[in-house]
Amino acid sequence: MKPLSIAVETAWRLSVWEASAAASQFIEKEHAVIGILSLSKVAAGTPADMKLDRKQWNLIRAEWAALQDVFMILSLDATSLRRGLRKQLGKGSHPHTENVIHRSPECKAFFQIADALAGDANEVSALHLLAAIVGEPGAVMSNLLAEQSIKTSELKKLLIERTTQGFKVPVEEGPQGAKPK
Questions:
Q1: What three-state secondary structure class fits 98?
Q2: What is the pLDDT of residue 96?
Q3: How far apart are CA 52 and CA 128, in angstroms?
Q4: For residues 69, 70, 73 and 79, what is the CA-based torsion angle, rounded to 10 degrees?
Q5: The dihedral of CA 50, 92, 8, 133: what is its sign?
């Protein structure tokens, strides 16, 4: 399997937290999607918020900007989808006695599908992983996307198309004004 991009690694860390907070036995594909959609918070924050260096943070921001491009085309409300997934998943009852939560077999399979979708790319991006999952979203995600009039086939197609365009690091704004990074 190809290496995961820093955005996928960060989304992965966020999905572990989501699964733990929900007392879920495993990290499910919906937790992974919540993690990907939570990259918005990472991109809006500072590198220190997630213990990232500036380069890693900018790479995450670039992938998040690419995701936003797709979401804007479809008028997809990522925040609403993230909150809807969290609400629909609800609370489990699994007591976590270890510091490790494993992916469910289904979730593991989606990482393999994302790897295949990445083709000749050097790494698996958040767009590849999200495209893999929306290819077989399950009832919960299908219903939430349908509420926003989003066809999963169209979302998957646009995500894959967008990966071929590369990821451009957004302009950084700071006290000294805008500086490209």
A1: coil
A2: 66
A3: 22
A4: -90
A5: negative
Class of residue 51 by CB neighbours under 10 A (exposed 0-12, middle 13-18, buried 19+)? exposed
In the chain, where do the E strands start and end? 172-174, 177-179
Tell which residue, 153, 156, 165, 169, has the closest CA to residue 61: 169
Secondary structure letter of residue 38 according to DSSP: T
Q: Which of 91, 79, 92, 65 is nearest to 144 (CA)?
A: 79
Cα–Cα distance, 181 to 179 (Å, whole number): 6
What is the reported pLDDT for 136? 94
C-alpha to C-alpha distance for 176 and 180, rounded to whole angstroms:
12
How are the residues of the chain apportioned to helix, strand and coil, as percentages rounded to the nearest 5?
65, 5, 30
DSSP code, position 76: -
For the chain, residues with pLDDT lower than 70 are: 93, 96-97, 171-181
Query: Of the candidates 137, 170, 169, which has an alpha carbon nearest to the alpha carbon of residue 30?
Result: 137
DSSP type of residue 103: B
**Do residues 7 and 63 make contact, with C-beta atoms less than 8 angstroms apart?**
yes
